[in-house]
Write a structure and sequence with these properties.
The chain has 320 residues and is α/β, with parallel strands linked by helices. It folds into 2 domains: 2-199, Ribonuclease H-like superfamily/Ribonuclease H (Nucleotidyltransferase, domain 5), CATH 3.30.420; 215-313, 3-Layer(aba) Sandwich (Rossmann fold), CATH 3.40.50. The protein has helices spanning 74-85, 97-110, 123-131, 140-147, 156-174, 178-184, 203-233, 251-254, 259-269, 292-299, 307-313; strands at 2-13, 18-28, 34-41, 90-94, 118-122, 187-188, 190-193, 196-198, 201-202, 246-249, 273-274, 283-286, 303-306. The strands form 3 sheets. It has a 7-stranded mixed beta sheet with strand order 3-2-1-4-5-7-8. Helix 3 packs parallel to helix 5, helix 4 crosses helix 5 (156-174) and helix 7 (203-233) runs parallel beside helix 9. The longest helix is centred in the last third of the chain and has 31 residues, at 203-233.
Length: 320
């Protein structure tokens, strides 16, 4: 058994186009001893249009772009790359591997080549399972810094080498081999076959998604309950000291039912109005400053009143 770590750089990436200019790989044994490494450069057959992960300009690859015209096209290297990735006694790994597998997929389609067929793992996904942070995709640089690994970003073979060192450091920190790490967190590798890509998955990720779905359902239920009350009583306001004021709540205040219903009910009883649009209120209620809704309210000229202060002002004491 051996490990193959790989990384890909592209001259340009669009929705259905990824023109590969570099395929870097590092081969190691199960103890992370390097047995081979190479930066395979190729003519992308197209101009360089480089963007960062957010689509902004400014990403610079550490290569001389004019030199790529001298290299063969992707099909010339296809068999070698295929043999590496489809080796039966290998575990294939990358960082954010789905992206690179998709690039391979697009290039094989572009040149009318057979689909790759191999399983793969992802150090980024390993990190998610180890930390339990499934909602945040950590970049290779952040992981490398956290684990004390140095590298030169965006040179394919160096990224592949850094991915290997990150994987090694993570395994050491966990006291496990790659296979033991996979088994411990019940990770199922991704796969590409017949031009179809199946992403990595795990029991931890499944539990995370299920919890997020429960949270979404609870949020929508609370949101509906709160606005049913508002719509029922907003036109039944009494006269009082809050006349002329229109209130808006932060989202976390709204869904804290029945506390939010008690608060908006007290506002209606004192003559105040309520709006769901922060830009239309003149008083914004939240537990703390900050956030898009807060910014919208303040930009519209609203005063900020802390949640607890508003409750005291209305004579609402204790837990609602």
């Amino acid at each position: 058994m051996h490990y193959i770590f790989f990384d890909i750089e592209c001259a340009c990436v669009y929705r259905n186009v990824a023109k590969i200019c570099a395929f870097g790989y590092v081969v190691t044994d199960e103890n992370f001893n390097v047995t081979a490494r190479e930066d395979i450069l190729m003519n992308p057959k197209g101009k360089f249009h480089l963007t960062d992960r957010k689509g902004g300009e400014g990403l610079v690859l550490p290569y001389e772009y004019e030199d790529f015209k001298k290299y063969p096209l992707f099909p010339t290297h296809f068999r070698k790359i295929r043999a590496l990735l489809e080796a039966k006694d290998a575990i294939v790994l990358g960082h954010a591997t789905m992206n690179d597998v998709n690039y391979l997929n697009l290039e094989t389609k572009r040149y009318h080549l057979p689909s790759f067929r191999f399983d793969f793992h992802d150090t980024q996904f390993f990190w998610m399972n180890v930390t339990g942070e499934y909602g945040h995709q950590v970049g290779l640089g952040v992981m490398a810094e956290n684990l004390g690994v140095e590298f030169t970003p965006h040179r394919a073979v160096d990224d592949a080498y850094a991915t290997m060192r990150v994987c090694e450091a993570l395994c050491k920190r966990e006291g496990a081999s790659v296979r033991e790490l996979i088994d411990r967190y019940r990770i199922r590798g991704g796969r590409v076959e017949n031009y179809r890509i199946t992403p990595c998955a795990s029991m931890g990720q499944k539990a995370h998604f299920e919890e997020k779905e429960r949270e979404r359902e609870a949020y929508h239920k609370a949101h509906e309950e709160f606005y049913r009350y508002v719509n029922k009583y907003m036109h039944k306001r009494r006269k009082g000291p809050l006349e002329g004021n229109t209130y808006c709540f932060a989202k976390d205040v709204e869904i804290d039912v029945p506390a939010s219903i008690g608060l908006v009910g007290a506002i209606f009883a004192s003559g105040g109005k309520f709006t769901s649009h922060p830009g239309e209120c003149n008083v914004y209620i939240a537990r703390e400053e900050g956030g898009a809704r807060y910014d919208s309210a303040i930009a519209g000229g609203a005063a900020f009143v802390p949640y607890d202060e508003m409750r005291r002002k209305l004579g609402i004491g204790g837990d609602l």
